[in-house]
Specification:
single chain; 69 residues; 2 helices
């Protein structure tokens, strides 16, 4: 209390509250989501290649699965 603070001084350290198991689970979930997104993007590309024979609603459904909020 009462000490001067200068630019660049460390005021606090932030320590993650999640444990190693939680971080591992989060990393695993992220990898699964990335893989799923990759599959959806590949499916969309394939449907777009076949746009003359695939119903437009199927292409639009695939497109909605690749959009990020």
């Amino acid at each position: 209390m009462g000490q001067s603070v200068k630019k660049g001084d460390v005021l606090a350290y932030v320590v993650p509250s999640s444990g190693a198991i939680e971080r591992s689970n989060q990393a695993s979930a992220l990898a699964e989501l990335r893989a799923a997104r990759s599959l959806v993007e590949k499916r969309l590309a394939r449907l777009q290649e076949l746009s003359d024979t695939v119903p437009r609603k199927d292409i639009e459904a695939a497109q909605s699965g690749t959009q990020q909020p």
